[in-house]
Specification:
With 102 residues, the chain is mainly alpha-helical. It contains 3 helices and no strands.
C-alpha cells in the first residue's frame, strides 16, 4: 500500500511537471499576440476619444453660432469652459496607456 501511494505521488508530480511545461509553452506562444492585441485596442481607444473630442468641439462651435443671437440670459452655458474645468481626457488616455503597458 505504501508503494502504491509512492507511485501515485510520483505520477502526480510528473503530471504536474508536464502540465506546467505545457502551460509555459502555451503562454510563450500567445504572449506576443496578446501584447499586439492590447496595443491595437489602445490605439483604437485613443483614436475614438480623439474623434469624439473633435466632434464635440464642432458641435459646440455650431451650438455657439446658433445661440449667438440670443440674449445672454437665454444662452446655454459654455460647454468648452465646463470641459476644460473637468478635462479627464488626458487622464483617461494616460490611464489606458498605463494599463496596457503594465
Amino acid at each position: 500500500d505504501a508503494v502504491a501511494g509512492a507511485k501515485d505521488a510520483w505520477l502526480a508530480a510528473a503530471q504536474y511537471g508536464v502540465g506546467a511545461e505545457l502551460l509555459a509553452a502555451a503562454w510563450a506562444g500567445v504572449q506576443h499576440d496578446l501584447a499586439t492585441l492590447f496595443r491595437a485596442a489602445r490605439a483604437v481607444e485613443v483614436e475614438r476619444r480623439a474623434l469624439e473630442r473633435r466632434v464635440f468641439k464642432l458641435f459646440v462651435a455650431a451650438r455657439t453660432e446658433c445661440f449667438s443671437g440670443l440674449p445672454r440670459a437665454l444662452a446655454a452655458p459654455d460647454l468648452l469652459e465646463a470641459l476644460a474645468a473637468a478635462d479627464v481626457e488626458r487622464d483617461h488616455a494616460a490611464e489606458v496607456a498605463a494599463q496596457v503597458d503594465a
